[in-house]
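Quick one before lunch.
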Amino acid sequence: MKREIVGIISALVLVGLVLVIATQMAIPILAAPSHLYEYYNTGDDSSQSVYGSNWYAQTFTSSIAHTITSVKLKLYRTGSPGTVTVSIRATDGSGHPILPDLCSGTTDGNTLPTATSQTRLPTGDHSYSGTWDKTTNMYSYVDDDPWSDNDTTYLLHGTTTAGYALFTFSAFTVPAGSVITNLQVTYRCRDDTSGTNRLNAALRVNNTDYLTTDGGANPDPTTYTDRTYSYTTNPATGSAWTVDDINGAGSYPLQAFGIRSSDCSPAIRITAVEAVVNYYTPEWREITFTSSYDLSASTMYAIVVRRQAVLRLQTALTGDGMRVHRPMPVDAGRLVVVAVQTEVGLQTLTGT
Ligand SMILES: [Ca+2]
Ligand SMILES: [Ca+2]
Ligand SMILES: [Ca+2]
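Model of the calcium ion complex:
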C-alpha cells in the first residue's frame, strides 16, 4: 500500500510511530475515562520533521461521531524546538487541511527526549592474532579512563605479523523502543617508528569477526590521534542495528570490538579503544486540547503539527511538494497494517 505523507513540516521535532496497543496505553491526563478511537501506530521505520515554517499533517477519518479531547504523537527532538502546537482541522476535497483550527493544544518540545549515547571501554580479552607485545590482559592497556594515557599504557602491535585484537565489554543497555543511529568504535594510535602501516576498527557479531568493514588509516608517525569508524548498520545483517542486537541479546548480537591491522610494519602503538552507541528513544506524548471538539462521523480530518502558532497554511497549500496522507484505516480489522510502513503514528483519545 502506497503511503503518502504530508510534507507540511519537518525537524526539530521528528514524528515517528510505533505499535502501541490501546489497552496498554497510559492515559494520565484525562480525568474521565478515555477511549481510543483512531490510531495508526505500527511500522514506524522513519520519521518526518517539523521546523520553522515546515509543518506536518496527517489525515484520519473518524469512525463514528465523538468528542476529541487529545492526541498522542510519538516524538523526539533535536535541539530546542520550543512550543509545539497540535491542532485538528477539517480537510478539503483533496485531503488538505483547511483553516481554522477546530481545536488545538501545545506541548513543550524542549522536554521531549533527544539523541543520547552510551560508551563502553574494554573489560576483557576476547581474541587476538598476529604479533603483540602483550598477550594477556591486553584490554587493560587500552581501557583508558579518562581518555587517554598515551604512552603510559599501550599495546605494541607488529612488526612480524598483522592481525587483530578484540575485547569484551559490559553490554550496552539501550532502552526498548529506541532507534539506533550508529555504533562508533574509536581507537587512538601512532607509529612506533615512522612509516606506512594501517590500522582499522573491528567487531565481532554473532560469533563472526568483521575485521575489514572499516577501511582503516595510516597511523600518524609521532602523534597519538583518535580515529573513529561509524557502523551505521550491523555488519552481520546489513540493516540498522536493533536494540536487542546492540545490547547483545538479539539474533545478531554485538559481542566484541577492537582493532585490526592490514600492515603492522612499522609497529603500531594503540593506547585506547572505546565503543559508543548513539541512539534516541521517542516518547509517546499526549497533547490535550484547550477545548474539545465534536467530530462528525466518517469525515476526514487532519492533525496538524507545527512549531509556531502562525497560520501559514495558504503558503503550504500553494507550495509544491505537499502530499497528504491517505485516510487512515479506523476499523479494528485494519489497524495492524504493518506492511503500510507508515511513518507517523497517532492516537486520538476522547473523553466520555
Ligand atoms: Ca604510520
Ligand atoms: Ca608497512
Ligand atoms: Ca592506554
